[in-house]
Write a structure and sequence with these properties.
Elements lengths: L5 H9 L9 H4 L1 H5 L12 E4 L8 E8 L4 E4 L4 E6 L8 E6 L2 E2 L3 E4 L6 E8 L5 E6 L7 E2 L23 H5 L15
Antiparallel strand pairs: 1-2, 1-7, 2-3, 3-6, 4-5, 7-8, 8-9, 9-10
């Protein structure tokens, strides 16, 4: 493995905003730069397909593939998939939903029913909401999909083996007035 030059370090620092968990060394810098970092389309949103063979049709987003900037719309963009027979499953020709690029779908305005852009706005109480933007948009709040409010795995109610006991958490280990609990430096 070669050492990094000052030029390489400056290039790395300029790309710090790219999510570190991505395998940029596999997919390349250019592809990693084109990834959307702040997604405004969520799973469960009602969207309209604006380009492609299903143009003009509406559907619900089934899955969001953030590593590829793609979404799967329920019942839309159907393609035939030839699957070879294997151990435990039959083969044949199946109809499956293919992913669409996120630029080919737009969220449907809840008031007008037309496709619109999504903007972010903060309400008076400080909560962040999505609003409809663009030409012909009503500017109304786009509600968060109900499917996102349901947790797939419920939060544990009892302490597990790796959880810190409540007594140790509530124990006072530092006193600001006396300086008790400060490490000796």
């Amino acid at each position: 493995m070669r050492s990094l030059s000052m030029y390489d370090i400056s290039r790395l620092n300029s790309r710090i905003h790219i999510v570190e968990s991505l395998n940029w060394h596999i997919m390349g810098w250019k592809a990693a730069q084109k990834l959307i970092h702040h997604w405004k389309i969520l799973r469960g949103d009602n969207v309209m397909i604006i380009r492609g063979k299903d143009r003009g049709e509406t559907g619900t987003i089934k899955r969001v593939i953030r590593s590829q900037n793609r979404v799967i719309v329920e019942g839309k963009n159907l393609v035939k998939k030839h699957i070879k027979q294997g151990q435990g499953h039959e083969g044949g020709i199946f109809t499956v939903e293919a992913p669409l690029h996120v630029s080919n779908v737009q969220v449907v305005d809840p008031v007008t029913g037309k496709p619109c852009k999504v903007g972010i706005m903060y309400q008076e109480d400080g909560t962040k909401v999505r609003v409809s933007r663009g030409i012909g948009a009503s500017g109304s709040i786009i509600p968060r999909p109900e499917i996102l409010k349901i947790r797939t795995t419920p939060r544990p109610t009892i302490a597990g083996p790796k959880d810190t006991p409540l007594e140790l958490v509530q124990e006072k280990t530092y006193d600001a007035k006396n300086g008790k609990g400060m490490p000796d430096l």
